[in-house]
């Protein structure tokens, strides 16, 4: 036994960690049994997902009752609810038509659409499309679904903009299309073809996404200079349909790779004149979005995302002079988080509603197109606009969601609001404390609101979108069966972060047989990748990442630290060129504060695990903070950000690729390993290049470090699947509890 392991064993003995059995067969059996005991089917009158019926104030949803699933419709004006159809009659009709028994209380209709009079349903059942006339009890098979196995473009593949149908002009007289890499138009009445552009080539071609001006006199298309693409290769060792391995190839741009260059080009149909702009204002492209014609046909608007993301511009190209002018410009010495952009061009063609983090919070601004300056700030305060749902120009109202508006509560909780274009008369439409999700009627007169917290069961109500008042209660979740099985809510815990003044919000999960007189090792589940917030805020009966692991005799925790989103720009910007930070100083401070409050949390036995960015961060934790984190399980980690996808890494780490990438690399820091580490990777991971994990493996071997490696054949981006989960259980039982995990064949899996 090496000194490190000996010290940990002594610490466990001194802390009383070996005073009682943990990680036993009974613990494992209970842990696996919780999947069913705490499953969502033990919660009734929950999981409401309303679907508004187009053009009406009616909607339908499924009631999950102890007796089964009931489809109901609600008339918001009349404040009444009834069954959407006769469940016994439809079950009988489906049974007869499909040849399979369908129980009335277990009907599941996919892609259900309901007509305004509620007498015709269209849905998918058994891979067939059906029409059901409720009053006539008439069921008609409308044919099989199209082949779902047709190849789909992978999300990493960049659109080359080479394939699309011809585009018809608004007046119906012409079509525009690409031929031999150039822009052509054809007069439909005569079939006469005309070439507009002359300079398109194989290596500098025009995009098929051609847009006509509203007056049908001009077209615009981007001229594209392509680049050589990078590909990642995978060997599928154990394919299901053949003995021999398969080689897979996937497009995969990485940080620093060259990117295509686009120039919006306008052509006059009658004269053939080309309006080709100078690229001075968009010459360092990460991406160009658009262009789109303005209503007067005199100019187009497009958006420019600068490489490195320190500038983002909304630009206007004149179709008369070819000049380009900025309408909106965002700049930052770190990064402009373009993933949060929102733009709405008002019908008057004079104003733009724009979203920006320029005042340290995410807010809406009214811009004047003519002056290219903000007229006024619409929303204001130390809170975050999350999503704009509707801009109602007729009534000059904006409907949006936001977090952090209400003081004295969890700042991540989302509510829904309405505000005037002038920034006045802010109305909260979902006032109760909780994490809200709302569905609005098409005319924005009503909303269905579902709200919950991790320790509060979901409540569903129908509200007025005028003032947020409850029009009609719909459902209150019944968790009595869940509680009868021993379920207890996780604890929401707050403590100061690294700066000693900023609250960090997280969760503490305990085993069902928790005894405060015992001492428990602590395991942190981490996902701290920038761009979002990750600690659950809604009611979850069974947390796949925390619940069963705690049952083995651990306290399992999760916290959002600095570098994550939706607190302030300053809070998130900690991550800039600093992903190796991973919020860990905040996490450590938070866990220590929990340990001070709860002495049964053993601060000498803290482990950590995660997947993807969490896989990188958990390994970083034991490499850079071994005095606190004593063991790590890391799945599919982006261990060296130079190996990972371009968009995610260049946003947070910047461009060009420099030392900031190298400094946070677990490959570069692998020689620092002094704690137990289990690395897990799916051999077909199409999110993070599997080579990222294997290069850590290579570095550890070269540094003569002991570690464990689990490769899951056929798996993609994964925490480890069932096999990896069991390996994770055993790993932490062995290294944090000092126990010997039970034989796998002695465990009852549920």
UniProtKB/TrEMBL annotation:
Top-level taxon of origin: Bacteria
Domain annotation Dipeptidylpeptidase IV N-terminal: ranges: 155-455
Enzyme Commission number: 3.4.-.-
Leader sequence residues: 1-21
Ranges for region Disordered: 144-168
Keyword flag Transcription: no
UniProt xrefs under Gene3D superfamilies: alpha/beta hydrolase, Dipeptidylpeptidase IV, N-terminal domain
The keyword Hydrolase belongs to this UniProt entry's keyword annotation: yes
Domain Peptidase S9 prolyl oligopeptidase catalytic: 543-737
Protein name: Peptidase, S9A/B/C family, catalytic domain protein
GO molecular function, one term: serine-type peptidase activity
One biological process term in Gene Ontology: proteolysis
Keywords: Hydrolase, Signal
Biased composition (Basic and acidic residues): 154-164
Organism: Bacteroides cellulosilyticus DSM 14838
